Amino acid sequence: MARKKKQKYDNSSISMLKGADRVRLRPGVIFGSDDLEGCIHGFFEVLSNSIDEAKAGYGKSIEVKRFRDGSIQVTDHGRGVPLDYNEAEKRYNWDLIYCELYAGGKYDASDGTYDYSLGLNGLGACATQYASAYFDVTSVRDGYKYHMHFEKGNPVGELEKEPVSPRNKATGTVQRWLPDIEVFTEIDIPDSAFETILKQQAIVNAGVRFLFEDEVTGDKREYLYPEGILGYVDEVSGEDRLTSPYEISGEGSGRDREDKEEYSVKASVAFAFDNKNQLLQYFHNSSWLEHGGSPDKAVRNAFVTAFDRELKARGRYNKKESKVTFGDIQDSLILVTNSFSTATSYENQTKKAINNRFIQSFMTELIRDQLAIWFIENKPEADKALEQVLINKRSRESSEASRIQVKKKLMEKADVTNKVKKFVDCRSKDTAERELFICEGDSALGSLLTARDASYQALMPIRGKILNLEKASLQQVFQSDIILDLIRVMGCGVEIKGQKLPKDIPEFNLERLNFSKIIVASDQDVDGFHIRCLVVTMIHRLCPRLIEEGYVYFAETPLYEITYRRGKKEETRFAFTEGEKEAILRELEPGKVKIQRSKGLGENDAEMMALFMDPATRKLTRVTAEGAEDMVRWFSLFMGDDVAPRKAYIEENGHLYIDDLDLS
Questions:
Q1: Segments of 85-143 assigned E as strands
Q2: Nearest-angstrom CA–CA distance, 460 and 241
């Protein structure tokens, strides 16, 4: 076998990427990733330049279009991007803007036009052009229409230039490009991404109209928020909100460090308190800060300080009661911040967080001081907010009081057979073949014990009816021994969608599930179906992925036992539905048939129970996510706290479920 030649490493070994390769071969450096997220970021970079024009007062609408070939077009009505020859640089501007990283017209804008720009770094247009299969730019300005075409990051042809009619005073820029599949692993930007970005930009750029047209679906949409973030908070908060939307705003200047240059900041904060909706969103220079950074720290500090101070001043704390946390406030808070600065320190090019120290201190002081005024000027609404925050705090503390006890019950490492009363384990330790039958009561347990295959079928009886999770609070859920036992037996932990799990409750981990199937075994009567609903509702609320991944089943009990004589031999067949019963009867001779309605699980004979549990003969129905949602919806209607919908349903549909009655 030939030995691989060692690569030489000396002065001639050092090289650098040039031109389009700086982006095409390393897209993650510029766009944050080479997947769909990076492709979307390229779109946002081009959009940002158009937004900067609109913010500077040039054009108040921006149109975005997606074409059938996957290409994207952004049109603005600004001043038109300069593409002609640049005497100062001795190069064409199209070359500087679309073929040179860190070039643009915003670095030396001393008139303040781009003080709060999204695109100060000069990367966007060039980087996106480099990462495109083709890129076309058309600009109208100075009485001319300019056009330039690029392919794979390189210019193709010369700059086209033609005069426009003197009567046509319109200016603007049209940029259309196809993200290159050779650069990104995926380029099909979903409709939802355009919707999210354009709506967000309409929210933080008050009065700028965004139009979206999708050639694929034919959809056309418009996004416009004349009041900006205040209008958005008003939209998100419901009719039953605790407080009206309120906006705080201010401007200032300062330094991140004494030896750094001074820069300007302006910020707006809109908020409302609402018990049904919660929201925290931060924007800086119109860019959504997914990870927050300085504004998030400012909001948390200011709100906790202001609310703690006000609660103390009004004597609302109990004696020796601990102070509120931001989590207590956040549970009922809808808040959006929109800040701008002439100098911004982003964590990276993707702009998902900022870490400017002055922005944090400026916004903290602004929010804290303005909240003090809000408490005075809006006392009735402020009282509602203070009361709700205290309720949130005390509810949290009440839940935390039982954390240690719950953790002990859920996290015990000892053999679950010895820890859960009446649980009957199987011999196999192979999760791939183990099955868990959840049944009702000792009677059913006894019948299942005689019919099961003890090598891989485990049994868990329910003592009484399980807690109704449609009505139960989180605290009640984790105080229920039945629920805790079921969770411990299954072994996979808990996942509650839309709610933060108490810190000592084990997080859901599918790999820790002790069984390949969770089978609910109940009688074929009203009580049995009720048990089904309760168990599936519990799993749907606490371990939804078990249903989503197909681990949950119903074991169907035969409705009828049909005995008939064939010659001298008596045979028995079982029907799971009315239709199956009728089909069997049509096959048999009249007069030799005995039909018996199936009894409860605890009363069935060994033959039927063996049929019920044997994989070769049993009938299992898998619970799907859609099926679980339908079940929970009906369960909520009939078993939930809201009486009015249940009454209305019964009045309208009750006759479908009740036999005709002679009321004469």
A1: 85-86, 91-92, 132-141
A2: 45
